[in-house]
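TICKET: design request
STATUS: open
ATTACHED STRUCTURE:
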């Protein structure tokens, strides 16, 4: 059921790769809720994905952009305003990449060139995006920026290696820039810390399947799906959350606040 929460609003959605990605689901939900938006991803990611199908489905245009390049981000925000007819109302930052994880390099043996690349792509890209948007005055007052993160920024998950550090930086940027953008333009910036989700990127992490099942056993409501995450992001883009900013918002079925569950204790043989 659609509620037209984003009727008349415009935005930029990054990171939609295929139907399994959270960004893809956000785009579908934003379209259902009445928004118009531009889709963007790195050129290499676009060659690997199916973004054209999403653009056709949602009546959107695609602007390729490398999120590590302020020049390309400037083009993205400038062109988006021309396409959408003025300043935008929301941005989804759904950008993450770790070469160390892809190459299965342990945390204690990280390749630092890969590490820096991960920081640039997955965290500094948010700062660059916000800095460009502020310089261009591209986001309307009371606009909303949401970046996707994971609770490995707060608690140690060995398999998440350097991305844990990178997500901690992403969340810090959201808070720090959230203050400055809030004071200057009432723009709110939040991160959503999502459950383990069966996206193309998520399932590429070693041991993901076992951890997905573990989190499912811990969370009272079970793991939140990509569709549920999209619904949550839509509320953060809407006017219903105008006073929410600089927050890291857990969307994980209660996993982050559960120490242990009866189901897990039973599985390991601990019973009353």
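STATUS: resolved
RESOLUTION: sequence designed for all positions
ATTACHED SEQUENCE:
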């Amino acid at each position: 059921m659609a509620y037209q929460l984003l009727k008349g609003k415009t935005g930029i959605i990054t990171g939609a790769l295929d139907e399994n990605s959270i960004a893809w689901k956000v785009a579908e939900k934003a379209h259902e809720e009445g928004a118009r938006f531009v889709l963007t991803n790195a050129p290499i990611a676009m060659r690997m994905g199916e973004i054209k199908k999403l653009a056709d489905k949602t009546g959107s245009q695609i602007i390729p952009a490398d999120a590590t390049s302020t020049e390309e981000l400037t083009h993205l925000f400038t062109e988006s305003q021309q396409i959408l007819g003025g300043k935008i109302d929301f941005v989804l930052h759904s950008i993450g990449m770790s070469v160390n994880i892809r190459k299965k390099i342990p945390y204690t043996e990280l390749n630092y060139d890969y590490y820096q690349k991960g920081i640039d792509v997955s965290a500094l890209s948010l700062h660059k995006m916000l800095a460009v948007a502020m310089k261009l005055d591209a986001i309307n007052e009371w606009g909303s920026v949401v970046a996707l993160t994971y609770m490995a920024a707060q608690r140690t998950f060995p398999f998440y290696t350097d991305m844990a550090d990178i997500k901690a930086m992403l969340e810090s940027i959201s808070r720090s820039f959230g203050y400055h953008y809030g004071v200057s333009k009432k723009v709110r910036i939040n991160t959503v810390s999502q459950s383990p989700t069966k996206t193309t990127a998520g399932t590429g992490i070693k041991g993901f399947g076992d951890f997905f099942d573990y989190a499912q056993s811990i969370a009272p409501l079970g793991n939140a799906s990509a569709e549920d995450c999209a619904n949550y992001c839509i509320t953060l883009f809407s006017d219903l959350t105008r006073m929410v900013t600089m927050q890291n918002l857990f969307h994980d079925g209660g996993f982050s606040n559960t120490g242990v569950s009866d189901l897990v204790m039973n599985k390991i043989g601990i019973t009353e």
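CLOSING REMARK: The domain at 10-267 is CATH 3.40.50.720 (Rossmann fold). The radius of gyration is 18 Å.
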